[in-house]
Amino acid sequence: MEQKEPDYLLITKFIDGETDPGETAKVLSWIAESAENKLLYFKIKQVAGQLKKEAIMPPSEETWLQIRKKKEQPPVGARTAGKGRRYFGYAAVICLLACCAVLFSRLNRHKLITVQVERNGRAKRIVLPDRSEVWLQPGGKLDYLAGFPENERNISLTGDAFFKVTTLLDRDGQKRPFSVHTRDLEVSVLGTSFHVSDAGAGKAVIVNTGLVRVSHAGSAVRLRAGEAVRLRNKSLEKLQINPALFEGLLTGHYRFDQTGINEVISLLELVLQHPVKLLQAEKFNNVKLNGRITAPDDSTFCKILGVMLEAEIIQGNRQITIKPNRPM
Fold first, then answer.
1. Is the pLDDT of residue 96 over 60?
2. Contact call for residues 112 and 53 (beta carbons, < 8 A)
3. What are the helix (H) ranges across 260-297?
4. Which of 129, 139, 151, 116 is nearest to 35 (CA)?
5. pLDDT tens, residue by residue, 243-289
6. In the CATH scheme, what is the code of domain 112-241?
7. Statement: the pTM of the whole predicted model exceeds 0.85
8. Could you tell me if 150 and 102 are in contact, meaning their C-beta atoms sit under 8 angstroms apart?
9. pLDDT at position 89, please?
10. 3-class secondary structure, 100
11. What span, in angstroms and rounded, lies between the C-alpha atoms of 300 and 176?
12. Structural domain boundaries of the chain?
């Protein structure tokens, strides 16, 4: 069924953080209506971000000198420069609205593909139109446009998934971007393998190979292999990790190599999707785990990990607690 064209000006106001509570609720409701709306919103936001960078870039001093010579005008002060920037801003808005109309038209012409895995199901391997591979975890959902029109590789993700991205080149020999959008994070890559978690407390991106850019609420970080970032208290927190350990999220085989307690906590939050509370933290300062865990389910994983830590891992409804076996 063909969609109703949205209010682009209201969406751009929302992206710039200029909407009142009523307008904000209206945009959020529109985004939540369908996967198509979510994909369109992320693409508009992507285009707006690029145009904003160009719009706020003031003309160079050389450009102003050329203008003054041609027009025989007096030196341009801050006021005139501001006016120039404002004209650039108007042009960017007009360009953005035109782009929105094109994106909306394209969205209506292409079929939306949705892949979902039941919570009690097994991870599913998906081959995308560009031959990139995704392992979607139980409870996860993936949306994308059939065939990746115009070679735009945009994915909407709910839940957890591991991505192995194929490198593609455009006509100019430049690598084509691949973007994953969740409710809170935007991940942009060129060709790499990484894990994205968008569930519970474990909102994070873990890089196995290549280079990844993760952004949230106007801030961004770049990650290389062996690095991760998690969303903590509404800000991005960068971590050093062991990629071989976190491959267990995909394979079920967790390899520990001098693994400290902070990395264990990050792993638990991703596996169990709840925040972890560490009791008597000083008892774990010197923890360096070695070995391997192969577990068919979360309960078995926690029991084996508890033995390795000499602690009890208690799974509550909203929190995981690590309690040492011997009180101080």
1. no
2. no
3. 261-272
4. 116
5. 878 888 777 889 999 999 998 998 888 788 788 999 999 999 999 99
6. 2.60.120.1440
7. no
8. no
9. 45
10. helix
11. 42
12. 8-109, 112-241, 252-324
Average pLDDT across the chain, whole number = 79
Cα 33 to Cα 28, 29, 40, 148, 288, distances in angstroms: 9, 6, 12, 22, 47
Tokens linked to 318: 């909203």
Residue 204 and residue 187: Cα distance in Å, rounded?
10
Calpha distance 69→92 (Å, rounded):
27
Name the strands in the sheet holding 276-278, side by side, starting at the edge strand that comes first in the sequence: 276-278, 320-324, 311-315
Residue type at 281 in one-letter notation: A
The CA R_g of the chain, rounded to the nearest whole Å, is 24
- Burial of residue 161 (CB within 10 Å: 0-12, 13-18, 19+) is buried
Residues 6+ apart with CB under 8 A from 230: 202, 203, 204, 205, 236, 237, 239, 266, 269
CATH of 252-324, one of 3.55.50.30, 3.40.228.10, 3.90.1150.10, 3.40.50.150: 3.55.50.30
β strands within 128-275, DSSP E:
133-136, 141-145, 153-158, 160-164, 178-181, 186-189, 193-197, 204-209, 211-216, 219-224, 227-232, 235-240, 253-259
- For residues 230-246, one letter each, b for 16 or more C-beta atoms within 10 angstroms of the residue's C-beta and e for the rest, the string is bbeeeebeebebbbebb
- What would the two tokens of residue 136 be? 């979607």
Sheet holding 124-127, edge to edge: 124-127, 133-136, 160-164, 193-197, 204-209, 227-232, 235-240
Report the C-alpha gap between 193 and 210 in whole angstroms: 7
Single-letter amino acid, residue 248 = G
Q: Cβ neighbours of residue 46 under 8 Å, at least 6 residues apart?
A: 179
